[in-house]
Specification:
- Helix 6 (about 185-200) crosses helix 9.
- This protein has an 8-stranded mixed sheet, with helices on both faces.
- It is an alpha/beta fold and about 350 residues long.
- It is built from 11 helices and 8 strands.
- Helices cover about 35% and strands about 15% of the residues.
């Protein structure tokens, strides 16, 4: 006879496991009980909405149009040190947007590397910035630039990947190089990225359990001396609306972002063909030698495999150097005028 106490224990354990593995529903902006809508948004063909912010000269007067793709735990309200004088002198229009699940953009349960490119393409069309544009991707947001180079290269005038995300499981990396780069990271980060890659169904549990540290993002130990100085120079934070970043739920923004980046890709960046064979545009990677979040060795390797990419390595740069005015202006100038 089956022991009823044993059955009850099994049922309780299964319920607890299900609860631990299942993320809560998102608090969608504009829904009942959800955060309010305060930004302009466009409606995509699948019914989702993307929130955006415009900056610079009017788009109809602009000489250059740049879509900025924010990184992990960031948003369209990223506080880049752009001076009005610099922007007006070059005639630049900037389009910032919240990636899926961040800020006021709707979550995307089927979010992927590929979907990022088509979100950007549809956003550009809905906001009517023209057929061609530049893209700048920052940190984890740079995987969307790789996606654009792969899936919508015909829409690009140029691209810049700043301290760009790397996946330690891209097949183009020699095993010893990717293994050594992964081991340069803090142990909690190594395990977090492994879980995202090999067992994404466990990721919500991994990021919410209290037994093991999961991610060191934001810890001072993971930042260079230059990064710490930069953060001190922004007492109000690197985003002007910090409280909005994860307001729809950390799983819909942060967790899905990591899983998309570190999951299985349909392509390897080193398989991408030069989108500008006639030098009508350019692609740049900007990397800090002192970056403790993105190991420089892997982006060096990619630049060697793809010689059409302009590789810039800052000897004293950490992960945050884009928040220095002189470096930001160099990134934009190189992208537009090289």
């Amino acid at each position: 006879m089956v022991n009823p106490i044993a059955v009850a224990i099994v049922v309780i354990v299964l319920r607890l496991a299900y609860k631990a593995l299942k993320p809560p529903p998102p608090k969608t902006c504009g829904s009942v009980g959800g955060p309010p809508l305060t930004s302009p948004r466009v409606k995509l063909s699948d019914g989702r909405h993307l929130a955006y912010r415009e900056f610079g000269v009017p788009k109809l007067e602009a000489k250059y149009k740049i879509i900025v793709i924010h990184g992990f735990h960031s948003s369209k309200d990223i506080n880049l040190p752009l001076s009005q004088e610099f922007v007006e002198d070059l005639g630049i229009y900037f389009l910032f947007f919240d990636r899926a699940g961040y800020g006021e953009s709707d979550p995307h349960p089927s979010r992927s590397v590929k979907s990022e490119a088509y979100d950007i393409q549809e956003l550009a069309d809905k906001v009517q910035i023209g057929h061609k544009f530049y893209v700048i991707g920052i940190s984890l947001g740079a995987y969307a630039v790789w996606s654009c180079l792969k899936y919508i290269p015909q829409r690009l005038c140029g691209a810049a990947l700043v301290v760009p995300f790397v996946s330690y499981w891209w097949p183009s990396f020699p095993a010893n190089i990717s293994r050594e780069a992964l081991q340069m990271l803090p142990k909690p980060d190594q395990w977090t990225f492994r879980v995202a890659h090999y067992a994404s169904w466990l990721f919500y549990w991994w990021m919410t359990q209290k037994w093991f540290p999961s991610l060191t993002f934001g810890n001072t130990e993971t930042l260079s001396a230059d990064d710490l100085e930069i953060i001190k120079s922004f007492p109000q934070g690197l985003n002007t609306a910090q409280e909005k970043i994860t307001q729809q739920g950390e799983h819909e923004s942060l967790h899905r972002d990591i899983v998309s980046g570190f999951g299985e890709w349909e392509f390897s960046p080193t398989d991408i063909l030069n989108p500008f064979p006639n030098k009508e545009g350019s692609v740049h990677i900007w990397q800090g030698y002192e970056d403790r979040i993105i190991p420089y060795t892997l982006n060096r390797f990619i630049s060697h495999k793809l010689p059409w990419i302009h590789y810039h390595e800052l000897s004293d740069g950490g992960h945050m150097f884009i928040f220095k005015k002189k470096h930001l202006e160099s990134i934009i100038t190189e992208l537009l005028l090289s």
